[in-house]
Amino acid sequence: MAERGRAGTRGVLQALGPGLLFAGAAVGVSHLVQSTRAGAVYGLAMLGLVVAANFFKYPAFAFAPRYAAATGTSLLEAYRQQGRWALGLYALVTFGTMFTVQAAVTIVAAGLAQALFGDWLGVLSYAALITGFCALVTVVGGFAALDRVMKAIVGVLTISTLAATALVIPTLPWGAMPWSIGAGGWDRETIFFAAALVGWMPTALDIGVWHSLWTLARRQQTGHAPTIREVLIDFDIGYVGTAALAICFVLLGAGVFFGQGVELAASPGGFANQVIALYTENLGAWSRPMIATAAFAVMLSTVLTVTDGFPRALATLRERLRAPEVPGAVEVATRTTYRAALALVCVGSLAILGAFQGGLRALVDLATTLSFLTAPVFSVLNHRAMRSPAMPIAGRPSRAMMGMSIAGIVFQAAFAAYYVWLRFLA
Question: Which of 24, 32, 119, 392 falls 20 to 30 Å from 160 in CA-CA distance?
């Protein structure tokens, strides 16, 4: 029994990694920008929506590592089996959002870098340096370097964010904080913000494909074929952590900004300096390094995972359009495609930053809303993957989890339909 326990622990440790990469990708703009804005503008009224988004999206995200562990192939293979239209849809969404998403997370990170390290460089120069660093880590070090760097960054951002939240909680006027928006408060502007908030809460659903690819990459790195239980433990650590940190940032925004009459700046540099300055003002000058480090670690983790995620998905997508995926196979052809896609994503995102560097809010809202509108489709594709012939019956989710998945699809689809009606038809 003890030997089995040790083996189980060893297996979990060997599987550990993709869940933290997921956390690094998730804890970014959705948390630092959108969750902070939610607390700053609405107090604790959006807290329930943040919890609901994390709850209802859980099955669709959890299905990604489950499928990879059970079949030895990625979610893109599951999409291919559902029809080339599914791969085409994924390609359309990816090409339609990748430059905007990469630019959005990079420009926020660049603004924070400028606030942390000084304005001896402009925001675009910091963006270029951050992009170059992330590209270097992924190209030179590969998945192993990405895994090591991300474990360190996620550790820093978690500790510093929890410490900052612990300092703010005693200052929150709990009795005076609004806990609900009320029927009359759901105006168009509030609903549009809620859509942007949910869009990347905890992150975009197409990142499930990345998670399945990271699960397979971790398997190749360690030589250990993880069980479904092992990958779900890894996933739950990352997912629950991202949900908890989202709540932290709502509390931070409410505790520091709500009721102060402060309009959050639209530019990345202005937003970064404003966030750090107001936290410092409320908590004391000694807290500036901790706040600045937490914020920058949050965004650097996101840029690093996004810099790897899009090229990795595009390289695999190219292969799936050509042929089925062989379980456990190492596709050498994807390496060249990966580098080409990496260059395309980096250059393309930097090219559009010049036009949006003064409009942080518009860029973030555009990217998050696109993710919000496409989320129900990917939830359906992931749900269907669990019932595909390739999925072993023993590895399929329980009826309760499949029911929760259907509830999530209904929640996302209904909200998206209402948003479209309000935006274009009302």
Answer: 119
